Amino acid sequence: QKKMASGGASVPIVFWGSKPPSHEITCICLCNRSDLIATGSKSGQVCLWTLERDQEGLRIIPYMLLFSEHSEVLSLSPVKPATSGDSYKLAVLSSNGTVRLWDMKEKVCLRHCTLPGQHKAMKVFERWSVSGSLLVVYGQYSDIFLVTITNLKLVYILKSDHSPNWIEHCCFLPNVEHRDALLATATDGNIKVWCLPPSQHGTNVEELIEDSSKGFDIKNVVSLTSHASKGFSRVLAVTQQMWIVFEATGGHLRPLYSENNIMEMLKGGDFVTMETVIIWGEDGAAFLHQLPPPTLEASPAEEAPLIKKLVVSRESPCRSHLVYNVIGGSTEDILLVGGDETGRLLFWDIKCESRGRGEKECVPLITGALSDSWSHPVKSPGLSDTLFPQGEVPPMTCAIHLDSIGRLVCGHEDGTVVMFYPSQAATVLLLSPRRFTAGWPQHCILKKHVGRVNTFLYPNAFGDRYDNKLLLSGGEDFTVRLWNLYAGCLVTTYSVHGGPVVDLMAVPKDLSVSWGIPKYPLVDCVFSLMQLRYQNCVCSIGLDHSVAILALQERNCVFLASCHDAPVETVRWRPYEDFLIVGCNNSKVYVWQLETGTLDRCIDGATGEVVLKHSIQSPQVSTDQTQPTALKVVNLHPLPTDPIIQVLLFNPQVIINLLSKAPELLAKPHQKQRQQIQKGFRQYLHARKQFTEVSVPGKVPDKMSDVDKEIAKEKMGEKMAAHKDDQLQGEWPKQIINIVRLLLSCLHAWQADNNLDKDLEKRVGLLKPVHPISFGMMSRGNILSLVLPGWGQKRAPPRPGPAKRVGLTTPLQLPLQLPRMSSIEFFDIHDLRWHLAQLLTTQHLLTVVSISNTLMNHIKGAQLLASSASEMDPLGDDSDEEDKDEGTRDNLLRACWSQVTALHCVMLPEKQGKQFKSPNLTLLAEKYPDKCVEVREAAQALLQSELRRVGPDGRAKLIHQWSRKLPSQAPVSPKTPVVEEPTEVVTDNLDQPTSQATPLQQYTALIILGVIGAEFCRHTNKKGSDVNVMDSGVARQVAKALQAVILDRPQASLSLATSWRRSAVDLMGRGFHLWSNHVTISRILSGLLELCLLAPLSKKTNGSSKVSLSNQMMGLAARKALSLMVISAPRLLIDTLAKEVLCFLQSTHTMHYPHSTLHPVPVGIATPQPTSGITMGGEDLLLNSKNEILSLLETAVDKSHQDVSLMLVDVVDILLFCISPDQLKKDKNLFEMIPIFKRLTSHVSYSPRSRKLAVGSKVGRIHIYDFRHFHCDSVNAHSTSVTTLLLSDDGKLLASYSQGASALTVWQVGSTMLNVIRTQPKCIQTWPVVTSGKSVHHLEWQSNKNVILHYGDGLQSKYSIN
Questions:
Q1: pTM to 2 decimal places
Q2: Taking a C-beta distance cutoff of 8 angstroms, is the pair 69, 96 a contact?
Q3: How does pLDDT run across 167-212, given as a tens digit for each residue?
Q4: In degrees rounded to 5, what are phi and psi of residue 205?
Q5: 379: helix, coil or strand?
Q6: For 1274, what's the count of Cα atoms within 13 Å in the CB-facing half-sphere?
Q7: CA triplet 1012, 1018, 1019: central angle to 5 degrees?
Q8: What is the signed CA dihedral for 950, 956, 959, 960, rounded to 10 degrees?
Q9: 1006 with 1025: CB under 8 angstroms?
């Protein structure tokens, strides 16, 4: 599991195989109130079981395995929810000291911690005096660790001063002297009591000393439990030979009853009620005893009558070791559950209705086993099942996935090595097999090993120094075999071990390098040759306690160490000293000299541990080879005797990148290129048929030695590999398409829309599943939760027909018939995944919607997916498709993918009903700022759809819950964004105050409330509208938080283009109608303009020719937010921007055009002071943002022309600021420089000869700008708004018309004499105009004496100046 690629949230699909894994139960607990049971095993897995009641009675069904550790599970402890909105959790303690906390609602691991020491058990301490629970961990040490549930932090260490000894067991006593107490038994028979403080002070770990220690001489305690009810407390201590009940009311222990058991060894006990206990022994029998009722003055009881005896079977006693636990919450429904080493659970009914004396035997009420999941008619397949005849599949012993070529290599019990594409094998097993023909690339079966294959090694994964076509395998036949992957042949065999080969590893890259002797070049040359000697070597370990170094080029053994007296446990290296360090399991360490091949020394004890600690391990997989891939196969092997469980991990982000960024690879190849690929493939098949084990006719003579034969075969194999290379290069895009088909076919919600299903199968290329699919979930740390096979099956399918036997080297044909399911079975199996967990639903919906959007936007991938489907189905009828042109087919494909997106975003919850697990809003909020555009858009669409589905009441509840998490200022950015890691579900308590909320929770609250405010809230709520009215206090808090995130400036070394800031920018633009009343507009405007400069509109970037992708995305987001803001409140934005420009001109003393309607009031032209680092000043910001301002005004004119006309003078002032004075002097065509003026011709007039510009306002005032002398005049031309105006050609006269005043006025524009004396504009003549309801279209100067007024109906009126 450590080698899993993270690289984003992966989608697991599991292939369990034909046999179940072992599950030797070590502990049992009830995870919730009634129906969910968890069992831990020695192999480290936790199995979840569900109790179901139907018409047939009570049933126990295993349905999920949790894979976290490979060490034994010591204890399971359920954690009750702290509040009504919280969920049950499960704490798991492993033998390696790891404590993991699982969410039982989502079935994911939330967090983990590691505690030192050899642990024994763990319990949950539910405190009565303080809200919250603690985890208590104890073991083979004298201390007791207390850990918090919320963050798994150590808070208390309980120590002992009086005869400290190992702790055997502990229990809890509530309300002892108004405090919670912990009672524990030590190995020396003493009982110790610690009283915990009411609350913890500070964040440091507190050490507490025991309050009392008494010697009761109770040794070999196997169980210690307590029970409290109605102010009374009792303690049950069970040893191997007796059990004792104590009265513990008030904190004082008084023996109530004890009973010796000489016949058998006891294993544990527990309280059923205050008056009933159950004791179980080693033989599997359990005894239910009656106790006297509790009293204040209790006296020792003389006897405890036996009520029931619980046995496994009346015929024969149980010989297997059982682990028991009592589950149930009331005396009317209490069960005793036991588990054994075979993975079987047994349930006894222990209702306490019978209180009479006498023995009454009871057998298990129900039983269930993990193997029941494999007893269904439709068996769980293995990936290699399609490659062997039915019923003759040898057990798989090892497997390795080759990421570089996308193939899976599996070794089996009979020595067979199989190499194939996992996506193709999974497609044949799960989807419609009749669609596939022999055109697929072939699988290779290699048989050379005698006996099982133990291990594989692909050296190229550790560095490019190894050849990428070589693969090594170690087997039970004492040999290591070297294979040529492309040729599909054996290169050589290493027979150097005297026992089975158990492990293969690469050697360090710098092995046998010179430690630097510059004075002796000859010595350096010798060391360089030694370094080259080991560069292409690998290390093998045999079961005969030997270690060998094998050369891949020379094909021989260059070093052999074989005098170890114990099995080899680890191999380490000292490259700069030429030492090979071998550690054995008897604590001995052997140091070998690589140069001479002799044993240098043998070390034992602590010195050997120090040597191992300061030596380097074998190299790990190279970082170049661990890049995220579209499909990765993880092989889970809990125990060496267990079958291998194979998990296919699909990476949606990698798939999206391949579909969007490589259209040339995904394009349909030309006919000529296709013929070349098919020709190369036929040549390869012909060569493979000629290449047999015995001989190669015409190439390898029969009289050759075995070594010469292998060399000749290898040379021939390389020739065949040349053809194979061409074929692999042509197949790569098809493999990506196959992966896309497999993933979408498995995740699509089939049978939700029958018409869409037909289109997807016929036109798009998806295939309907015909076999049950086991899904899974991945949480932080690459921890898997996998659904068991057979979950939901109800009806047996028809049996498959016999399959043909496959030869040794004959290319395989994929089977064309597999078991099919009926529609009822398919619905039960495939649709139940939507009822399992919110995380699973969210992950599947995100994957389907994001990939569907990618295929809809990048149609080449969709074309190849559809074309490959038609090639696979030779029986399909494509006559209708051939008649349609390419454009029509593309539109049909886009329509199909659009319907898929709509189905999973909107309609799926209604199709599934009440049991549908809705998407997790927290996870969608975390994906909201994802770097991948398609994933981000899918998360936003799903979040809006879910918020719309819950309705106004649901959104009001969300506002109430998440408003407590809102930050008061810009929260600290999470150190590790969730979008970069495997998915983690945040299920913490929403009732925590803001001060206790983590930065991730604060950002999540900000996004959820921001989307609600932007999309579903208004200032007022109209009757019958489906919108909410957000409280002004919450809206102010959200707006201030968004503003703080936008304006917060990091250190100079950090980037402004963060995903969370991009989300805040997006929400500010979309919800500006709500946030505008609570933010400082000028600061928001300056902050967004600064972010726009990260991706400037002009081609010239500040000193650099390239802009990073994150900066481009941030610049586009800021530019889009400004556009939305100016559309939502154009007057507010224009007024703010005009004031900024005015203050800038006043501060720089460049007020060429004084604004007569604005007063020079400082409004904050600069951006706010940064929290840390340096940001761009206000003056530089405005000067560098001229292109952004022009683009913003163009949007305002296009979308809000009427609002722009009301503030036309301010708009013109801003436009003129964006043009340099030199351009105004030189360039006469102002309208070409600023195209916005062309859309304002009725209110703006320009004279190129005089370089004057006239602007009419809605208040009847006219502003005249002179670009030659840089001054501006304004006059009160009319009492109402100016309808239209026009300058004469020479710019000396100006005609203006006002519809409201019904007047046409001619003005003599002011002129200057010698640039010294300037006259003001003067009214020459005014005419009343009677329009009779006609609209005036425009004005026209016929000459300097005549002006014509044109009406909308084509008529005109001519006026002459006297």
A1: 0.84
A2: yes
A3: 999 998 887 667 788 999 999 888 999 988 877 656 788 899 998 8
A4: -75, 130
A5: coil
A6: 13
A7: 130
A8: -120
A9: no
